[in-house]
Amino acid sequence: MASRKDALLTYLSAVTQSRRHFTDFLFKVILAIVIMIVVSPFFLVLIQVASIGFGQIFGIGPGIGLEFFTTFPGVGLEGGIRNALVGTVELIALASSVGIPLSVFGAVYITEYTQPGWTRAIVEFASDVLAGIPSIVFGAFGFAFLVDFLHLGMGLVAGSLTLAFMMIPTVLRTTQEALRAVPMSLREASLALGATKWSTTWNVTLRAAFPGLITGVLLAIGRVMGETAPLIFTAGNSLSVPTELTGSGSWVASMPYTIWAYISDPREYLQVKAHGTALALMIMVLTVDVVANIISRKVTRRLV
Amino acid sequence: MAGFEYHIEVRNLSTWFGKKAILKNISCYFEDNTITAIMGPSGCGKSTLLRTLNRLNDLVPSFRLEGQVLFGGENIYETGSSVYDLRKRIGMVFQKPNPFPMSIQDNITYGPKLHGVKDEDELSKIVEQSLRKAALWDEVKDELDKPAPNLSGGQQQRLCIARALSVNPPVLLADEPVSALDPISAAKIEDLLVDLKKEYTVILVTHNVQQAFRVSDQAAFLYLGELIEFDKTSRIVEAPKDERTEAFITGRIG
Amino acid sequence: MASQLERYIGDINKKIRELHKMSTGAFMDSMKAFEDLDQAKAAEVRDESEKIEALSIKIEDSVFETIARRQPVAKDLRELATYLQVSHHLYRIGRYAYKIAHIVRLCEGLSHFKELISLPYLARLAKDTIDYAMLGITDKDLSKIDELEKLEAESDRETGEMFEEITEYLRQRTDITTMAMYYVIIGRYCERAADHAFSIAERAVYMVTGKRKKLGLAFKGQSSEAPH
Description:
The complex is a heterotrimer of chains A (about 300), B (about 250) and C (about 230).
Chain A: H1 2-15, H2 19-58, H3 66-70, H4 82-113, H5 118-132, H6 135-149, H7 156-181, H8 184-192, H9 197-225, H10 229-232, H11 255-264, H12 268-302
Chain B: E1 8-17, E2 20-30, E3 35-39, H1 46-53, E4 63-71, E5 74-75, H2 83-89, E6 90-93, H3 104-114, H4 120-133, H5 137-140, H6 153-165, E7 171-175, H7 183-196, E8 201-206, H8 209-215, E9 218-223, E10 226-232, H9 233-238, H10 243-249
Parallel strand pairs in B: 3-8, 3-9, 6-7, 7-8
Antiparallel strand pairs in B: 1-2, 1-4, 4-5, 9-10
Helix pairs in contact in B: 3-4, 3-6, 4-6, 6-7
Chain C: H1 4-36, H2 39-70, H3 74-106, H4 118-138, H5 147-172, H6 177-209, H7 217-220
């Protein structure tokens, strides 16, 4: 123990030895504090949500534990959130199936098939602007254009298309970066073997860019999973799963919407359910992000 | 192949990228089954010349050319001639090894599959033959489905050579193929290239004069876009005709 | 700033100059020793000849090292190869000096039967031939190469006259046979030294121009009738 105290004293004396040393030490301390402040919201949110919602997911009882996910809310909303879970999955699936191909092929077009110039600049500019637009604006646009102007009505299609519009700028840009990161020599090697441009793009470039592409897609999905504002005016809500693609039977619930709806409700048990839903959603998004992270780390290893 | 000449002839070739002239009125002739080294200081146009031979410069929109490049007697820049066909018959290896991010096997079958080979047995045969020719078979024969980027630098480059050979091109172009490798791998690949000339015609770009002398039968000296000298290597080593060539190979310029 | 290769070559060039001086010096000294039948001088020449051999070996080693380490090509390669060969020629010339000095020793107790004119003259002609050829080697100056044929013509003429003179003497006297033989032999050495000089000159032309050219009247079929 004496040696520990001695070590500390030695350290302190070394550190206060000169002004330089002290400034250096001071900065280390300040930065450490800053980091703790920066990282704390994550833990604070997690603790807040888990402390209340933990029991919903892992407890036992009616509409609790496994039943939380397998039963519908039912009368008085005392059941589970199966409607929201299924709804979120369906919305994401549909949004992805529209948004991803459009973004990927769009990115392929501007990266591989155009020269730096007007087309490319306009597309990139539009994407960057769209990426920064608040989600409520997308919601308003979705309502005005899809629900009203195109008479699609609220529901699955309007909701997922709005989400798709939100995904496109991000996925397009990340795909473009992934494609750009593929070294020119790989394309040249393919062409030097007598391949056509499309063959090269499909078999070599996209393949090489795939990990980066997937990372971008997963990150976009992770983000869009938790959006409420776009869905408020476009997806409607439902206590069960949608039965049609359009019309009133297509109204669909989603987890973020459910959280918002339950939190706004005065009933105590719904508050708790809201936290449970929030915890489940956090876990889902976290999983998606972790997977994206793992894949992106594998990229640097495999692409030389 | 018998009876069909694959020699390459360049006649009065001049090239530009936009307004910038790169090659100036070059004429030369590459014999079958020889190794020709194109050497010169950086920026003299050697890579441009090489890439003109398999029309890889077409990828650059500002590229312009005058003169002729004849392969087997036909002008490869004739409008209407198939560039995909040409590139099947003229293969290329690049400075930095660039294996596709696929398995070793898939790297080699990529080319043949492009050109219509579907039979599994034939593809396996091609894989083995190409890897043997590139002196890589013994090292990787039990790991053909492992990813190619996991190989060492020297192995990757040999894989790229095997890949280029997979479609059996009579001519192989090599753009500074060993300058990114360690000396031992480089030496192995130099020996490999010398072996390959029995069946192929090799045209090699290098900035390393000693390497050019080690492996080539003929050497071309390019300086500021002009072809200064083109002669048998044995002659140039002993007594080059042009004093600029002599200044370059003795290390006084470039 | 000179490159490494230039330094190596410059160093060997200096050694070649020294070898040139030593060989021709020994050669002329041995001729003087023979003229004066000076045994002491002859012994000096014999010692000198060992130094000549040592220097030529050093030059050879330097050339090998330079080729192995610096990988010279074209004119650098020709220059080094030439130094290697010239070193050998100069060594041979040094050997002739040794042999003449050896003959001086054999002349212990003998004396000349006439005043020596031709032999010293032939030695000087041989030395001039060597010097002109070496100018091409050490200074890359080929301006004197054309003079060589004049010297050869002169040397041929002088040898022919000497040969006639000695045969005349031998017809008249029988007591001078040994000495007369020695004169002929030494005349031969002078001539061989001049031959080496011609080889050196040919190497000089190759080194500077890269072309191989044969020099000498002998190759033009224009030499005299004298035996050589």
